Amino acid sequence: MQLVIVESPAKAKTIEKYLGGDFHVLASYGHIRDLPPKDGSVDPDNGFAMSWENYGDKGKQLKAIADEAKKATRLILATDPDREGEAISWHVQEVLRAKKALPQKVDRVTFNAITKQAVTEAMAQPRALDEDLIDAYRARRALDYLVGFTLSPVLWRKLPGAKSAGRVQSVALRLVVDREREIESFVPQEYWSVAAEMEQGGQGFVARLVRWRGEKIERLTIGREGDAMAAKADVEAGRFTVEKVETKPVSRNPPPPFTTSTLQQEAARKLGFSASHTMRIAQQLYEDGAITYMRTDGVQMDGSAISAARKAIAERYDGGYLPEKPRQYQTKAKNAQEAHEAIRPTEFSRDKVGSGDHARLYDLIFKRALASQMASARLERTTVDLVDATGQHGLRATGQVVIFPGFLALYEEGRDDAEDDDSRLLPRLGVGDAPAKKRVTAEQHFTQPPPRYSEASLVKKLEELGIGRPSTYASTLQVLKDRDYVRIEKNRFFAEESGRLVTAFLERFFERYVSYDFTAGLEEELDDISGGRAQWQAVLEAFWRDFKPKTAEVMEQKPSDITAEMDKFLEPMLFPPKADGSNPRACPMCGDGQLSLRGGRFGAFIACSNYPECKYTRKFGQPGGDKDGEDKGPEVLGQHPETGQDIVRKSGRFGPYIEMGEGKEAKRGSIPKDLPDGELTLDWAVKLLSLPREIGLHPETGKPIVANIGRFGPYLLHDGKYGRLSSTAEIFEVGMNSAVAKLADAANKGGRGASSREPLKVLGKHPRTEAEIKLMAGRYGPYVTDGTTNATLPKTIEQDALTLEEAAQLIDARAAAAPAKKGKKAPAKKGAAKKPAAKKASAKKKVAAE
Fold first, then answer.
1. How far is CA 161 from each of CA 153, 316, 478, 849, rounded to the nearest angstrom?
2. How far apart are the C-alpha atoms of 92 and 109, rounded to whole Å?
3. CA gap 381, 360 in Å, rounded
4. Which residues are catalytic?
5. β-bridge mates for residue 265, sequence order
6. Overall pTM surpassing 0.85 (yes/no)
7. What distance in Å separates the CA atoms of residue 309 and residue 321, rounded to the nearest whole number?
8. What is the pLDDT of residues 403-451, one digit of tens each?
9. CA end-to-end distance (rounded Å), the chain
10. Which residues contact 396 (CB under 8 A, 6 or more apart)?
C-alpha cells in the first residue's frame, strides 16, 4: 500500500479516486506543527535551532497518518506546490521519523491542478524534498517569530495599549499611516477650467481651452475666478475654426492571466472581495479541480492550456479575435522556483462553475485567462485643435473610437481610481471647419489629496515595493484589521489611533526595521535562500546581530523618556500651528498649562501639565482638538432644569462625554455612538444623565425592569437577565409590554440579545450529506448549521446573498477543522495508583509575527 499525504480532505477524496486501489490518501488538515508561542522556540545562540510543537487538535489525524505509514511501502508527500506546501511535507516526514513510522521510500510530488491528468503525470515524476525551499521556510518562520516575540514585548511595556508588531505587518501599516499623513498635510489648490460645448453636423462635443492670450494653459494655470471669467469671455467672443486634426491608431494588448496578487486586486475592484475572502474561495475552486493552484507569481500558461484557450476563442468568436501566434508571457518573479503557472481554469470548455461568490470569482478567472490569448484591441485616437481668428486662443477636443474590440469584447481590466478617459466620440471634422459654439463654461476645481488605499491598491503597492509575498498579503491585511490598527470604510483603509501610535513608535525607535527598502531587501535575501544562493542561518545571523541590541536598548529606557520622545516626534501632527499664531500647546481649559502626550494603561492621550488642578484631556488622534483643527475645550450645553447645574460636553481619552457637577459628586455619561456629537442637545444630555431608567415592575415577578447603556450598547435588565435594545432612543421609548416581550424573547434564545431559534432561511439539503442546512442568527452573528456542525458566516459574505453551496463548504471546512471529541474515560480500578497529572500544554494562540 502507498500512502499519499495532502492538506485537505476534499482534495484527498478527489485524488484517491484518480489513483486507484493501491493508494490510500489522507489529509494533514494544513500545517501539523509550529513554533510554540513562548520564549525560546528559536535559539539564536544555537544556530537558530527551532523547537517545534504539534498542534493539539491534530493529534487524532497524526495518529491516523502514523498508523497507516507503518503499513505503507511508500510515502508520497503531495502537498501544495509552493514553499508552504514543501514545509508541510517536511513537517509530516519529520514527525513520522520521530514516531519511527517513516516508510523506507519517501517521494515528493507536485501538481498545479487537481485533474486526473495532472495528478497521474505528477505521480510518474517524483522527486526529493526541496531543501532550499525548506530552508527558506525555516528562515522566514524564524525571522517572523524573532521579530514578533522580541518587538511585541517592547511595545507592551513601553507603549501601553499597543498589541503587536510584525516584520511585514508593521511596514504595511506604515503605508496606510503615511497615506493618512499625506492627506492631512495636503493643502488644496484652486484652479479653473474653461470649456466650450460645440456642435458639428448635429453631433455635440466638448473642446477645452489649451491656449489663452498666446500662453499655453496647464492644469493649474488659471488659479483665480477673475482670470477664469476673462478667459471665458474671450472664448465666447471668438470664432473658432479647425486648425489641425490628428488621428493616431492605438493598439491595446490583453493583460496576462492572474497571479495571486493581481487576482486579489481585481476581485477587490470588481467583486468587492477582501483578499482573505478571495483566497478562501480560490482555494475551494482549486480543491474542486476547477482552477490551477492559486498561490503563484507566474503569468505563463502551460502549452496545452494555451491550445485549449485558442480553441475556445475560435469556437466563440470569428477568426479575427484569434492572434496568429499564441501569446507568451514572462513572469517578473525574482524567485523562479516559486514562479508556477498562472491561475487559470483547468478546462476552457467550462465557462461556469458553482454559484454565488464561487461562480463570480471563477468567471473572473476564466475571462481573464481566455482574454490573455485573444487579439489586441485596435482603437483610433483623434485630437482636434481649434484656433480663433486672432491666433491667441486655442481649444482642443479629444476622442477615441474602438475600431476592433479584440479582447475587450470579453474582458477589460478594472482601475482602482477613476481617471480621465478620452473615450468620447467626436464628429467628423476637417481643417477649416467652424463648428457652432453652443455654450462656454468656467468651472472651479480644487486639487485632491491622494486617495486612501483600497485592498487592491495596497496589495499592488506592497508588490511594487517588494514587501512580503503574494501568498501572505491576505493574512497580513487581516492582522491589521484584527488588531484594530486600521478600519475599513467604503472599501478604503483608514488608520486608527492605535495604528498611528504604533507606527510612530517604530519609526522613532526602530526606523530601519520599518523602512521600505530594508524590508524589501530582506525579502530578496529570503528569495536567495529558496534559490540556493544564500545560507539561511547566515541571513538570520546578520539580521539578529543588529536587531537584538536595538530592542535591548529601547527596553532599558524609562516609559516617561519614551513618551517624551514620542511627544517631540509627533508634535507636527498633535500640535499643528494655529492660524492666529498662538501657542498650539496652550491648554484650552486653564490657559497657562502646556499640553503634551501622556501614556496610560489604556493607551496614549493628551493632557495638561497642570494636572491634577486641571483635568483637561483629549484623545491621542485628535490633531489640535476638533475636526476643524481648533480645540474649543469644554462646551456648556445649558443648565439642568431641576438642579440648575451646568451640563458640560467634554472630550476625554475615551471620547466625548457629558458631565454635571464637580469632583467625586459629578455625574458623567458617555455620548452614545448612534448619537452624533452634532445632535447632542440639552434635552438629550438631561436624558442621558437620568439613566438608568426604571420602566416599572415586572407583572410576574414584581421586580423592576431597568433600561440603560452598557459596554455592549443599550439594554434591558430584570432579575439578572438581559435583553438587547436596538438604539439609544429605544431606552427612553420602550414600554412595559414591549420590555416584558423582549426579555422573554431573550430568555428563550439563551442569552443576552441572542436572536430567534427560528431559522432566518432554510437553504436546502447539503449536496453531500443530505442534511438540511439552515441560516441562523446567533449571539455573535449569523451562522449556518446542518444540525451537527455550526459555522459562523464570515464578514465577507452577505447573508442575503449566501448560496447553498457556500453554506455547505463553510460547514465542511468547520467540521474538518474541529478537534476530535474526547470519549468518556473508563472508571479507574479500585486500588490502582493514580499517575501524577501531566502538565497541561500551553494553549495555542496567534502571534502577530507576520
1. 12, 59, 19, 18
2. 14
3. 33
4. 293
5. none
6. no
7. 12
8. 999 999 999 887 655 444 456 778 989 999 999 999 999 999 999 999 9
9. 39
10. 207, 208, 210, 383, 384, 385, 386
